[in-house]
Amino acid sequence: MQKVYSILLAEDDENSAKVVIHSLDKYNFDITHISDGMAALSRVKTNTYDLIISDLMMPYLDGLAFLEKGAEYIKDTPTIMLTAAGERKNVLRAAQQHVNHYLLKPIDLESLVEKVLHCLGILKEDLIDKKSFPLKISLEELPDDTVKLELKGCPKKNSSDEIYQRLSDFLSTHSTISKMEIHLDEYFFIESSRFRILDELILKIIRNTKIRSSTIRIIAEEIVHYLPDKTKFPNLMSCKIESRA
To answer: Whose CB has fewer CB within 10 Å in the chain, the N or C terminal residue?
Structure first.
């Protein structure tokens, strides 16, 4: 399965956050955005990330205090610090903390990607552009009143509506269908909202069709290693989930 890198973005300035997210979300990055240092500290205590991007000046807890207090949880996690030009006096203090790179605002997009790649130890060739793998939806009737839904490529954040509409149109001409297989390829998992999309889709299916979650099989390569918390996506996790070798 394609590698998706998890990034914690701690940034209270909405415009700067949008720049970072817009620049990185197009690739195989899973970005969690937090708007203050205290919330960021809570996150690193319960979650692991491949990279942290933190603003220097934030409410409740500034970026350096966040890194100091969270040191035991992120000692092996590379960090990029965002700062305004007038905050250079903090560079020395940051150098003593867990900071691998500094990035001045306004953020230069090319420099941002370059520093992210360096921190993660990957090459530009390792990036996967989601637009290069648009979602393809196919449906096929199988024996025993079963429909096979195959999803190839990277979905958009609102793809559950499109997928369900295609399924609904198919079921309107196949009234006996009561079971379902959902096959996912590796590029489906590049999208950070992948599990939310599936959970929303399953909810639409069990609410509006004869198909129950107990008769839905979800099949993907090594999917069991990437499953989320059951409490966050109860509809998805109520289905039978299988890894494809």
So the answer is: C
- Topology adopted by domain 5-126: Rossmann fold (3.40.50)
d(C-alpha 134, C-alpha 144), whole Å: 31
Tell me yes or no: is domain 131-244 CATH 3.30.750.24: yes
Return d(Cα 5, Cα 7) in angstroms, integer. 6
In whole angstroms, how far apart are CA 130 and each of 6, 25, 145, 195?
A: 16, 9, 34, 16
Domain residue limits, the chain:
5-126, 131-244
Distance, CA of 46 to CA of 64 (rounded, Å)? 19
Other CB atoms within 10 A of residue 120 CB: 16
Query: Are 78 and 120 in contact, with CB atoms under 8 Å apart?
Result: yes
- Residue identified by tokens 């004869």 is 210
Cβ-proximal residues to 223 (8 Å cutoff; 6+ apart), any chain: 184, 241, 242, 243, 244
229-244 pLDDT tens trace: 778 899 999 999 998 7
- Cα distances from 238 to residues 19, 63, 206, 214, 234, in angstroms, run 37, 40, 11, 7, 6
Distant-in-sequence contacts of 102-105, Cβ < 8 A, 24+ apart: 105/16
Mind listing the pLDDT tens digit for each residue in 11-55?
999 999 999 999 999 999 999 999 999 999 999 999 999 999 999
d(CA 22, CA 139): 32
Please give the single-letter amino acid code of residue 63: G
